[in-house]
Design a protein that fits this description.
478 residues, alpha/beta, 5-stranded mixed beta sheet, 7 strands, 47% helix
């Protein structure tokens, strides 16, 4: 309908115009809920790891690039910037070098004369620069042969020598630990281990033998893994997270519990509180740091710290959906107060504030947050109302990090611990047996705990295999 047609309708047939307006209003009222629902679905489909609980890996290489702050300088070149503290490789002592080549100049840079350091006229000054080239030796497998002799006794019986316990496997402890290290830390598949052993080390090994060696490593780590589990209930602060896993195509869950020096992994069929009781006992008395998943509340009734990274992403998700004026105002208010809170926290971590000052200066920020949540707990926007009520419900666990030593405001420690397992899952698609689950949990626990303790994870696996083959207790992680 053109403007002229609308004008004619209003002046020539007012009743028809009124009827048309009522029909249009009714159509708008009928379509508005559908439009809101479609906008909500579009917002959900366009969320990424910055405004939801989706993992960063789900963004993909084609994901929207993150906004970067404007560069203050006129032209900033890539690479290290002025003032950046560089890193360099230290030279090893000369006596540890395999070969030392003295290099002398051939001609004089000033007059062009040929220099002969052996002559009396051209004498070395004794000054020199050191330059070292590091390489690895050609890998050659070391083969140890055991010749088991037969001895005839005076009684006429023939007696064959028995193979030593440490040599019953056809492969030594170093290659056994190395292949397990490739899988546990670098997520190399069994076939990848087989190929590396063949092409790099010249060791012909079957796929079944790789699996058998992995199983031996798993058994050698059993005691250390169990000791870590028994130590967890005694820790003052625990960061916990869980992520999806697969067993023969069926869904299960991989749990990770992290402390400053321990990372414990456990695979279970359930995501419920009973798994927490299996790992931590019937009651845990320390501070539990996690997201707001209900299983943690059902298990632990003590001091909690909820992950602020999850909260920030949830609030950003509401802002991203932008379904109502309340959504914009609520998210803007909460994000600004959260920014002030984290500014205080970073000042405390840098040593600019003591804990008493941190708590005191956070009081007005917490007061404004509480006012914001109470104001929007009755919002007409469902997402805003739900978020405000949830944060008020969990209020007592939002600011534990301000008063308790060793508690962080986010659960990044557990999420970082789960990341290697997630990457492994994307390659192997889970496990096919209970033994495979145990291998995964034990290898991850040994590798990640060694890294947290600044120990060599390969050396830990090697010592575990050697002790296992000699029937001795293996090294401990705690």
């Amino acid at each position: 309908m053109t403007r002229e047609e609308a004008t004619a309708l209003v002046y020539e047939n007012p009743e028809a115009a009124i009827e048309l307006i009522l029909q249009l209003v009714a159509a708008v009222e009928h379509l508005r809920p559908r439009v809101d629902e479609l906008e909500r679905k579009i917002a959900l489909l366009t969320r990424d790891s910055s405004n939801s609980s989706k993992p960063p890996s789900s963004d993909g290489p084609a994901g929207k690039p993150k906004a970067r702050p404007p560069v203050k300088s006129r032209k900033r070149k890539p690479g290290g910037q002025p003032g950046h503290k560089g890193s360099k490789r230290d030279l090893v002592p000369t006596e540890q070098a395999h070969e030392v080549f003295p290099v002398f100049p051939e001609t004089c840079d000033h007059c062009g004369a040929v220099l002969t350091p052996e002559s009396d006229s051209d004498k070395p000054t004794g000054k020199y620069w050191r330059h070292q080239v590091i390489d690895i030796p050609e890998p050659k497998p070391e083969v140890t042969e055991y010749q088991l002799y037969c001895v005839r006794c005076s009684c006429g019986a023939e007696n064959w020598a028995k193979l030593p316990q440490t040599a019953r496997s056809g492969f030594g402890p170093r290659i056994t630990a190395f292949l397990a290290h490739l899988t546990g830390l670098h997520r190399v598949t069994r076939r990848g281990c087989q190929e590396i052993a063949k092409t790099i080390f010249g060791i012909d090994i079957s796929l079944g033998s790789v699996c058998k060696l992995h199983q031996e490593v798993s058994e050698s780590l059993a005691a250390a893994h169990e000791t870590v589990r028994q130590t967890l209930p005694k820790q003052p602060v625990l960061n916990i997270d869980e992520t999806g896993w697969k067993k023969q195509g069926e869904s299960c869950w991989l749990w990770v519990v992290v402390t400053p020096i321990i990372a414990f992994y456990h695979i279970a069929a359930s995501r419920g509180a009973k798994v927490l009781k299996e790992m931590l006992g019937d009651e845990y008395t320390g501070v539990l740091c996690s997201d707001m998943y209900s299983a943690y509340k059902a298990f632990h009734h003590g001091v909690r710290q909820f992950c602020w990274a999850h909260i920030i992403r949830a609030v950003k998700g509401i802002k991203h959906a932008c379904r109502s004026p309340d959504a914009v105002k609520f998210s803007k208010w909460m994000l600004s107060e959260t920014g002030r809170m984290f500014a205080l926290w970073h000042a405390f971590k840098n040593g600019d504030l003591d804990r008493e000052t941190l708590v005191r200066k956070s009081v007005p920020i917490r007061s404004r947050m509480s006012k914001c949540l109470q104001h929007y707990s009755t919002s007409s926007d469902r997402d805003v109302r739900k978020a405000a009520k949830s944060l008020l419900k969990h209020w007592n666990g939002l600011f534990t990090f301000l008063e308790y030593e060793g508690v962080e405001p986010t659960n990044n420690a557990a999420e970082s611990g789960a990341r290697p397992a997630v990457l492994w899952r994307k390659i192997c698609f889970g496990n096919q047996s209970v033994d495979g689950e145990l291998l995964t949990a034990r290898l991850l626990t040994a590798e990640r705990s060694s890294i947290l303790q600044r120990r060599n994870p390969f050396q830990f696996l090697l010592e575990s295999v050697i002790a296992y083959r000699n029937g001795l207790p293996g090294p401990a992680l705690v």
